[in-house]
Every structure is written in C-alpha cells, then in structure tokens.
Amino acid sequence: MRARLLLAPVLALSLVSPPVAAAHPHRSNVDLVNPLIGTTGTDPSEYGGMIPSTAPPFAMTRWSPQTRVNYVSRLPYHHDDTAITGFIGTHQPAIWMGDYGYVSGMPGTGDVQVGRSMPFTHADEHASPSRYSVKMSTGVGAELTGTSRVGVLRFTFPADAAPNFVLTATRAGITGGVHVDPARREISGYNPDRQDSKLGPFKAPNFKGYFVATFDTPVTSFGTSTGSALHEGERDRTDAGLGAYVRFPSDTRTVQVRIATSFLSVDQARENLRREAPEQRAFDRVAAQTKAAWSEKLDRVDVEGATPDQLATFYTSMFHALQYPSEMSEYGRYYSAYDDRVHSGVSYTSYSLWDTFRAENAFLTLFAPERIDDMVTSMLHDYREGGWLPMWKNPAETNIMVGTNADSVIAEDIAKGFTGFDRRLAYEAVYKDAMTPPDRDTELRFADREEGTPVEARAGLTTYKQNGWVAADRTAEAASRTLDYAYEDWAVAQVADAVGKPADAEFFLNRSKNYRNLYNPATGFMQARNFDGAWTSGGWTEGNEWVYTFDVMHDVPGLISLMGRDAFVALLDRHFGEGHNNHTNEPSHHIGYLYDYAGQPWKTQAQVRSIAAANYANKPDGLTGNDDCGQMSSWYLLSSIGIYPVTPASDSYAVGSPFFSKVTLRLPGARRPLVVSSPGNSASTPYVSSLSLNGKPVSRPVLTQRDLTGGGVLRFGMSATPSTWGVS
After folding, report:
1. CA–CA separation, 488 and 483 (whole Å)
2. Strand partners, 84
3. Which of 504, 503, 458 is nearest to 484 (CA)?
4. With CB atoms 3.0 to 4.6 Å apart as the test, which of 245, 249, 283, 470 could cross-link to 166 if both were Cys?
C-alpha cells in the first residue's frame, strides 16, 4: 500500500529447511509468536510496518511500547531505536495510515518530566501477543497487556525512587481535555486528533478518543501540563500539547495503571473498564485472558516438519492476520465518523480493502468465520451513514488506494456461504459502486492522497462507462483503475446472481471483459489509454506493466486466450527471471500462481517456495513489505498449506506447494479437522506429484472452500523433479 516500488529478488528454492519435531502439545502456539518480526527494515517506511503490540484478536485499541512519535509513514515503535519514550494505546492500523484518538503514558522517577525517555536494550525486552515487558536503564521496569478497550500497565521502580506517571493526551497543535481526580486515583480526558482528517470528505467534528486512567496506588500530588510546562495542583485543563501527571509515595515499588478507551464518552470508557478490567490489580488476569484468546485461534493449527524459525514465522503471521479489521463498536453502540453520530449496532474499522481483498479476507473466512457477517454488516452501516462502501476506512473514508474492493469481499463472502447480513442492501451498495460516478468525476483527477475530494469510489467511472476504459488524460492511475473495475464488475455480477438479478449479472459479466481494452498487442503488455483511445504511459498504482499485465484475477483463461498461451508463459518466465516480481506490494501476490492456469503448475510450485524464502523470516527485518493489515501474512499462511485465492470473489483456491510435512487445521465450524499431509516434504522436494482429498484423486490444481471446511485428509505427493500432475 502506497509503497515505493522495490524489486524483490527471486531466490533459490530454500524455504523448507531440514525438519524437526515441531508439534508442541505441552505448550500454546502463542509462545511461538515473535511480535518483533517486521519492526525494522532497510528503508524507513518500506518494511513490515509492525509493532510489538499486545491486545486480543481484532482489538479496538492496541498497546505498544513507544520509541518515537508516530504519524503517517511512521509507527510508534521501531526496532532500531534505543530509548523508550512512552507506552501508547494506538489505533494506527498500518504505517501509511494515521493514528487517531490515541493516549500514551510514561513512568518516571524524581522530578516530573514531560517528554522523558529511558534507554533500553533488546536483551531486556520480551514481547508476546499477551504481554510486553522491558527493563530500562534507569531501573524502571514496564509491562503491558490489554483487553480490546483497556490497557493494563504495570511498572516497577527502584527503592525510594519517588515514582510518578505522566499521561500525554494530545500533541502540539491538537487541543484536548484532561481532568485529574486524586481521590479516585484517576485521570480522564479526550484526544480529538485524526491524523488522516485531511483525506476524504468526512471531517467528523465531534470525534474524540476518550480515556480514563486509574491507578492502584494513592496519589500524593498531581497537576496538568502543556508542552514541557507543569501546572502543579491543577485538576482541569483544555489546551494543545496537553497532559497530566500524578506522583506516588516515595517508597512505592509497583504501580498498576488501567487505561480504558472509548470513542463514545468518558462514561463509556469507565463502563469498558468495568466490563473488561474491573479489579485494581488486573494485570495477571488480563494477560492470561488475552493469551487464552490468542490460544483459541493459534492452537487450532498444528505444524509438523518445520524448523523453530519457520514455526515463529507461521504463528506470527497468524498473529498479524488476526488483528484487523479492528473493533469500533462498544457493547452494542458505536461512533460513526461518517455522519458524526452514535448508532446502535456493530462496527469495525481498519478496512485496508485494496490490500486485504486479495487473501486476508479469505484467511478470515477460514479462521475467523464467526466475524465475517458482522464485518460485512459494518461495511453496510458505512454505506448507510456515508453513502458508499468503504475503500480505506480509518475510521472514516480516507480515499487511499483505488477501486471499490468491498465489492469483492462481499461477493467472496456470499460465494463461501455466509448469510448473516442483508444481501439486498449489499447488492444496492455494490451496484452503486459499479454504476454511479463519484461527485466531480469529470473535474478532478483523484490523485493519490489528494485533499479536499469527495468519496473517490470508482473515480473515472464516467469515461469507463463511455469507452470501456478509464481515460488516463482525465483520471490518475487510470490503467490500474480500468483493470480493477473490470474485476470488480465480475464481483458485482456474482452478487447480482446471488440475489436473483440475472440481467444485471449478465451486464456486469460482459463489462468485466473491459480489461481487454488495455491490452496492446504491439507490445504484449497492458497499457493506459487516453480518452481518444491513444496509448500512453504510466497510469499504474504501485506497480508497472510487468505487474498489471497479469492483473486479470477473474478471467485468467480469457487473458491467456487474449495473449496466446505461449506468449503468456514466456512473459511469466521473463517476469520472474528478470526480477520484475515485487512481492512487497500486493498486485504481485497472485502472479506466481498463474502458471497453474497455463498447464505448467510445477513453475507455480517453484515460484511460491522461492517467494516465501525471499520475503519472510524470523527476525526483526523478516517482512520485506508492509504487512498491510494482514495481507502479506495471509499470503504466507495460505501458501504454506498449498493454496491461494487467485480469484478472491469466488470460493476457489489455486494449488501451490505446501511448506511443511503436516499441518492439522481445526477450522471453526468444520465437521472434522483438515490434515494437509505432504510426506517427505523438504527443500529438495518442492514439486507436487499427486494430490488427493479423502482418498479421491484431485487432477486439477484447484480446491474449493467446501473442500477445506469439509475436513479430512488433503494429501500431497512431493517430488524432487517436476511432474505432469495438474497440467490439464
């Protein structure tokens, strides 16, 4: 998402290391997670973009150590930093998105100091999904854990250290409010900051991130702060660069702080505290509860035949993929930044749909199916309150990226049998995406992060409907948009068919062939076109013609027919052989699987292994590209069991090459476990020689959702040399 194009090298087949006994029945798979994966890289912003946060799956607020000030393109924690500056309750979902309604705090000793930092080393740091701890050079120790809406922090201090705690409500230029109540041992307030507020039309003037911080230790003195200035004894202040502080008895050795968050009110923050962490000393119980929540998900999968590093990569990928979308509703109510009002119902945010429609949503349909209906219902609430389905919701529409990829997610969820949302309303919403140009469509170019624009939706739809392509001389990123809109038309056709509108389905199926209008037979590549039909350069979103020529996920056979099979395979060979595949950005994620459609599945098997080896590792720089709300991780997870959803808006998966000798999946709602078995799997046997499901041969390199959720044994025969399996 919005990353500079970097070419990822295609490495030799080295993913599968010599196997070790990898099943650990005596421990939780949560213990195998390494939250430090993806916390640094060779570029300041083009790396995994992850933080060692602690909270349950899909939590509203995530708690992280803070080593720097975060904003768009910078997260609150970076592995290269050497000092802790605070502990933050953050809502920043990805490195290229902004935070909103955040709150942070920092322990101190001696004189109260705003902006204090304490050096630390990674040897004194431990991170897991359920707790984070660090011992700083001052002798102060810190531990974090959290529920969905409450962070619990535990600090230890040296003897007679005169401990204090400084809470930061807002930064310079952002006016918030704080109230200190020493009798209740409490600081409450709000932070109205939305770092993405300049993007999109929804200004949400009443938005606030509310908080209540309460302490288990008596408060001896207190005050507020603005900038570095302290206002001793002051209980209330509304200002910019705002904070508050409390001091504890000088002989205090341990302090627990519970910080409840809400987007509704301070009273709701207190209610969230009462529901989720009511006791003063809640740390150990909350940490155990949060670990149990992660165990419920991660212990559904057992991996055998993997090294410790591969196990860490696998379960950390699950940890990443089960964080988003994040909860926005609070016990039956939610604040909507679309219409600036409070509603009854369910809501999620952090919809990075240009990224996550590709594989993250497919992963969730398998591993968190109990969330799917509510996640779609949430998008339909967004449609009612803001007029459109979300593109990139954070927590209102930001107009980031291109295309109306909610269309694909809804079509996929319908294809996979989810029924707990209003399908008629869903069709109304996707139909509007497909047929209604955005306001000022003929006036604006809708450039990347252009401020002051209406909801972007399918920008350039006017010329797309007129010509069959988005005109590059009128709309930015026109070539990518044309291909996206063709795919999304196919997705809308699936929804139309599901709700009994065959004429509409036929119309959108026909229009989904518009990708053909960008194919230039003289060059053998997709190419942008001006309104008059002339070929032109550019027009791509995070890619180029090498990537986007293969961006026809809904009609790969049609693309092969258009190009010719030999030319298609030759271009794929050049794409990988010349280093054009860019796995750090999502448009490349399906390309390795396209050989399946051209009768050469052994090349898919080799490429998938190579891509995984080049882009995933158990180390802080072990993710080459932004994880983008679980998409990078979901590619790895699904690929590791031998599948990938090349056509997301369907119930099908292309077959690749499984990474491990045995994976047992106890999918929620499935009648029985699914055992993905590939005896003899190793670095020297990457090729599939046979495939069977419950003893029945599978001759084509494709599986369905029902094949997976039905359970049983999916058995791969593995080989050191390419075979003829799946060539038909």
Report:
1. 9
2. 118
3. 458
4. 245
pLDDT of residue 1: 58
Confidence label for 24 from pLDDT (cuts 50, 70 and 90): very low
Q: Which fold has domain 301-719?
A: GH92 mannosidase fold (3.30.2080)
- Number of neighbours of residue 389 by Cβ within 10 angstroms: 27
Q: What is the pLDDT of residues 83-107, one digit of tens each?
A: 999 999 999 999 999 999 999 999 9
The Cα 704–Cα 643 span in angstroms is: 10
Would you state the structure tokens that stand for residue 488, as one six-digit string?
């999304």
> Which pLDDT score is estimated for 27?
85
Residues near 503 by beta carbon (within 8 Å), at least 6 away in sequence: none
In the chain, the percentage of residues whose pLDDT exceeds 90 is: 96
pLDDT digits (tens, 9 = 90+) for 356-390: 999 999 999 999 999 999 999 999 999 999 999 99
Q: How many CB atoms lie within 10 A of CB 681?
A: 23
Average pLDDT, whole number, for the chain?
96
Burial, 21: exposed, middle or buried (Cβ in 10 Å; 0-12, 13-18, 19+)?
Answer: exposed
Strand partners, 145: 152
- What is the C-alpha separation between 165 and 110, in angstroms, rounded? 11
Question: Is the pLDDT at 20 greater than 60, yes or no?
Answer: no
What is d(CA 627, CA 589) in angstroms, rounded to the nearest whole number? 12
Report domain 33-281's class: mainly beta
CA angle 276, 278, 280 (to 5 degrees): 130
**83: which DSSP letter?**
E
Burial of 140 (0-12, 13-18, 19+ CB in 10 A): buried
Cα–Cα distance for residue pair 417/619, rounded to 1 Å: 38
Strands 103-109 and 163-168: antiparallel
- The whole-angstrom separation of Cα 123 and Cα 114 is 27
**What is d(CA 584, CA 541) in angstroms, rounded to the nearest whole number?**
13
* Neighbouring residues of 563: CB distance < 8 A, sequence distance ≥ 6: 519, 524, 571
Cα 116 versus chain centre, distance = 32
In sequence order, the 6+-apart residues with CB closer than 8 A to the CB of 12 are: 610, 613
DSSP 3-state assignment of 184?
Answer: helix
Which positions ≥6 away from 554 have C-beta within 8 Å?
486, 487, 490, 491, 512, 647, 649
Kindly tell me if the per-residue pLDDT of 248 is higher than 50.
yes
3-state secondary structure 105-170: EEEEECCCCCCCCEECCHHHEEECCCCEEEECCCCCEEEEEECCCEEEEEEECCCCCCEEEEEECC
Phi-psi region of 629 (alpha: psi -120 to 50; beta: other; left: phi over 0): left
Give span(s): CATH 2.70.98.10, the chain. Answer: 33-281
Tell how strand 712-719 and strand 674-677 pair up.
parallel
For the purposes of burial, counting CB atoms within 10 Å of the CB of 339, is it exposed (0-12), middle (13-18) or buried (19 or more)? Answer: middle
pLDDT surpassing 70 at residue 14: no
pTM reported for the whole predicted model: 0.96
**Cβ-based neighbours of 318, under 8 Å, separated by 6 or more:** 33, 297, 298, 301, 367, 633, 637
DSSP 378-408: HHHHHHHHHSS--SEESSSB---SSS-THHH
Is residue 293 within 8 A of residue 239, CB to CB? The reply is no
- The model's pLDDT over 577-617, given as tens digits with 9 standing for 90+, comes to 999 999 999 999 999 999 999 999 999 999 999 999 999 99
pLDDT, one tens digit per residue, over 522-557 is 999 999 999 999 999 999 999 999 999 999 999 999
The token pair that represents 12 in the structure block: 């030799």
pLDDT at 6: 30
* Opening angle at CA 457, ends 453 and 462, nearest 5: 90
Query: CATH 3.30.2080.10 in the chain, residues?
Result: 301-719
